[in-house]
Design a protein that fits this description.
The chain is an all-alpha fold. Helices cover 61% and strands 2% of the residues. Strands 1-2 form a two-stranded antiparallel ribbon.
Length: 323
């Protein structure tokens, strides 16, 4: 019965040229832009259920709560769960693309069938990126997944009182599922009738090579920014956790913006999306990440200003000197 259902879905996807991954990210973008705009413009007029569901972390909803939403909340520390998934999923994708480049063979049939189902259908997927470019992008995204796995499972100090809505938890899984899968969706060797090429950086333009360097810079700066936040909760001499409160950061990029870790997330995804040009799904992923991080950064900036009366006026929310 399950196989029959999958077969019917494959026919539907192929008949109507449905790209399920693009549909997922379009829904994400519309939702975050709509709700984010309402939260920043008319939050006081929104039901508590929406405000409570949308907010989390330092800018979580304060005041009366919705009983149903309370049952749909999980510890924020569960963020670490979807980085476990992201790490495994990115390693699996990396294995298949390295295998394809080394053996010069097309991906296994079950991989092609899965990509057909998720990325537009058997008759509509085309090669848009060479295997060398996709391998580089997979290595970069894999590097990010490794670091975030390490941070959330071994470094970050999550408040035991902090909650997130179950929808945030599910979106985390879907984001990494879609982003990693999209690395292979239109890559040579992963589209029927195509063959991978030997690995070479000659396919990358000078601009794309610069994106690799920018990505690595942003990757390191995001880690440094996250460590600033971690160290705020530790005793400087002993390294022991001494508080779970949100304190005022004042080192590095925090002197310019309230959320440098979010800024560098956007930078990294811009680099990946341009590396994977002209795959439309990756453009959607970038718009989704940029929208999500910007809305979250604006709410964080607002929280800092409300809770620290001496908050530096020259500090912006997410883009130095601009926003």
């Amino acid at each position: 019965m399950v196989l029959a259902l999958i077969s019917s879905l494959e026919q539907l996807v192929d008949q109507y040229h449905l790209n399920l991954l693009q549909l997922i990210f379009i829904i994400f973008i519309v939702t975050i832009v709509l709700l984010g705009s309402l939260m920043t413009l008319v939050e006081s007029h929104l039901p508590n259920s929406i405000r409570q569901s949308f907010r989390y972390g330092k800018h979580s909803h304060k005041g009366s709560t919705d009983a149903l939403v309370n049952h749909l909340e999980v510890p924020k520390a569960w963020f670490s769960h979807f980085y476990v998934f992201a790490l495994g999923w990115s390693i699996l994708a990396l294995y298949f693309i390295i295998r394809s480049v080394i053996t010069q063979e097309v991906a296994p049939e079950f991989v092609l069938r899965f990509l057909d189902l998720m990325c537009g259908g058997r008759q509509h997927r085309q090669v848009q990126v060479d295997s060398s470019t996709a391998l580089v992008a997979s290595l970069l995204l894999g590097l990010q997944c490794v670091r975030r796995f390490y941070e959330t499972n071994f470094v970050q100090i999550f408040s035991r009182r902090s909650k997130i809505n179950l929808s945030h938890y599910a979106v985390g899984y879907m984001h990494y599922f879609g982003a990693v899968t999209s690395l292979l969706s239109n890559t040579a060797g992963f589209v029927r009738g195509s063959k991978p090429e030997p690995f070479t950086l000659s396919h990358l333009s000078l601009l794309q090579l610069s994106y690799i360097l920018i990505f690595l810079f942003a990757w390191h700066q995001q880690y440094s920014s996250n460590m600033v936040l971690v160290n705020l909760r530790k005793n400087a001499k002993t390294g022991a956790v001494q508080t779970e409160e949100h304190l005022l950061p004042s080192q590095g990029w925090f002197n310019l913006i309230s959320s440098p870790h979010m800024f560098f997330e956007v930078v990294m995804y811009y680099c990946l999306s341009d590396l994977m040009t002209p795959i439309r799904t990756w453009k959607l992923i970038f718009v989704w990440v940029a929208s999500n991080q910007t809305i979250n950064a604006l709410l964080t900036h607002q929280w800092y200003k409300e809770n620290f009366k001496d908050y530096p006026k020259r500090r912006h929310a997410i883009i130095p000197w601009l926003l």
